[in-house]
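Pipeline run #58 for the internal structure catalog. This entry was flagged by the ingest filter as a single-chain record with no existing model, so it goes straight to prediction. Upstream metadata was stripped on purpose; only the residue string is passed forward. Reviewer on rotation: M.T. Logging verbosity set to normal.
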Amino acid sequence: MIENLNEASPKIDREMVRSWVEDLVLVKTFAGLKFQEAILRKLAEIRGCDYRLSDPYEESKGIDGFVGEEAFSIKPVSYTSKKSTIQDSINIQIIYYEKKKDGIVFEIPDEPMTLEFP
């Protein structure tokens, strides 16, 4: 691994770091926030109530938004392969989503609901 690191280090330049940061911040974070809002909006529409995104304090607790009074954490399906401490720290539902070519598919555990929408 040290040899791999020594080989890779000279290849890291300012442009590579800039490209990585832009992808992380502008593309992935922006897209993730848009997916969260779209999922909350759709769930609120189905339940016939309002939704809202969380404030910074709520975000620090792992809450991404609310539908009615119920708190939700919204994660990509790839998150299921990681050890989660969110449900251990606060009692909230986690909605898992997957981005498809023509929309988003999400599932709410403990509810018989899998939705696909553009």
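catalog note: The chain has a mean pLDDT of 80.
catalog note: Strands lie at 51-53, 65-67, 70-76, 93-100, 103-107, 114-117.
status: ready for reviewer M.T.
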